[in-house]
Amino acid sequence: MAASPGGPRRSRSVRAWLADAFDAFRDLTTASPARFAVGVFIILILLFTALFSLPAATASGERAPFADALFTAVSTICVTGLSTVDMGTYWSPLGQVFVFIGVQVGAMGVLTLASILGLIISKRLGLRAKLIAAGDTNPLRAHGGPVNEGQTVRLGEVGQLLITVALSTLVIEFGLAVLLYPSLIIGGVSPLLALWEAPFYAAMAFTNTGFSPNAGGLAPFATDYFMLAVLMVGVFLGSIGFPVIYTLSRHYWHVRRWSLHAKLTLITTIVLFVAGACAFLLLEFNNPKTFGSMNAWDTVFQSFFLSAMTRSGGFSVIDIGDLNGSSLVVGSMLMFVGGGSASTAGGIKVTTLAVLALAVFSEAKGRPSVEAFGRRIPSDVQRVALSVVAWGATIVALSTITIAQISQRPIEMVLFDVISGFATVGLSTGLTAELTDPAIYVMALTMFMGRVGTVTLAAAVAASSRSQLYSLPVERPIVG
Q1: Number of domains within the chain
Q2: Using CA atoms, how far apart are residues 478 and 480, in angstroms rounded to an integer?
């Protein structure tokens, strides 16, 4: 039988179209991994919004309102932990599974997860795949141009880092689940149900999300200090970042061989952890609604627990709305800083704060450059740090003003919840659950910008660095 006219030509055109589409996709992922990551985040949010909109995803069997489904999807993919519904009772077991899967994908990072899958399939990473994966480990890599300064993780080490990410996630979450299982049984959870809740809590701790699978949250375990300590360890390991875990796995006992990033992350994290606990202890020890009714040991432990969770953990055994206004301000400051870069935590990152603090110290000392541990921090890193803080403060300010105008609630409560959303912490004064749909959409956008916006800005700032063969005349404006 004769071939139909135009058949081969049509076949060749389809193949050519597919080839062009594949080339365009490859160029996009290589030229702008940050832009590609944002696009995939949006697709994932839309996908999980559809999943949470299924009647089978809710405990009542009814379709969830669009605003609640979208907000839950954003909070899950962005590993935030805020919710407009009771996570323990509103969603069915299938909905809880969607939450569990979503936080794992969101916490590991879109670029990292894609690279791990590629490594599993092809058994090797090409240069393009390494460039894409490096965009998740360091925002300064997330552009197509050259990077002049040394990076936290070099391209030759990206494959090993991806293996570390996958193994550390599996090992740490499995270890946390094993440790949490007895505490759940002692707390009254059935052994069969604990087999689900233990890995769920482990994942929520390591991913710094803070969702609870049961209706009462951590309230039934408020005096189980072993369980709370395990959750604190999980949050700490998730917040320091995969590059730091990679460094510690290679040079555990050789502190001098640690990267500057690892040193700054660990030191700043510990300093903020202790300082935050001391601040909460001082401000809340006589508050009868929080720590005032506890003995000395309980007060000290709960202060450290609250300090750890305000950094990005999201778990709480007290009502955040009962904190004094001064404590809400301290909590907002800790949440805004967040955890380590390339971690499951949010915020402007502890290394950003460390770089700016070192820059201020160097300026006060009159030093020509910013230095730490025998290393010089280049000016482009300082510009990125300043830009990230300015970007984060702008997002928080605009969102706070908008939501405060819509909700007409006290500004300190609005500010706390907005920073919690921006920094993907998950703690709430109770405001988020009472927001109207317009305010819910603003909060969801805030969470999305907090998760991917700072990385995109950092990549844009880094990409804008170009060689200039001339210099303009110098004129010094009055500052301060």
Answers
A1: 1
A2: 7
Mean of all residue pLDDT scores within the chain: 81
Q: What would the two tokens of residue 446 be?
A: 């805030």
CB 316 within 8 A of CB 309: yes
d(CA 229, CA 220): 15
What does the longest C-alpha to C-alpha distance in the chain come to?
Answer: 92
Beta bridge partners of 224: none
Domain that holds residue 274: 26-144+153-462
User: Which pLDDT band holds residue 452 (cuts at 50, 70, 90)?
Assistant: confident
Report residue 366: phi and psi, to 5°: 75, 25
Would residue 479 count as lying in a domain? no
Q: How many other C-beta atoms are found inside a 10 Å radius of the C-beta of residue 222?
A: 18
* Domain membership flag for residue 1: no
Q: In this predicted structure, what is the pLDDT of residue 243?
A: 78
pLDDT of 255 > 90? The answer is no
Model confidence at 205: pLDDT above 70: yes
Instruction: List all residues 6 or more positions away from 330 whose beta carbon is below 8 Å from its beta carbon.
Output: 276, 279, 280, 283, 310
Q: Which of 87, 321, 300 is nearest to 209 (CA)?
A: 87
Q: In this model, does residue 215 exceed pLDDT 90? A: no
74, containing H or E segment: helix 66-77
Q: Does the pLDDT of residue 477 top 90, yes or no?
A: no
Residue 103 covered by a domain: yes
Q: Residue 465 corresponds to which tokens in the numbers above?
A: 């660095």
DSSP 306-375: HHHIIIII---SS-GGGS-HHHHHHHHHHHHH-S-TTSS--SS-HHHHHHHHHHHHHHHHT-SSEEETTE
Least confident among 91-95, 99-103, 112-116: 112-116
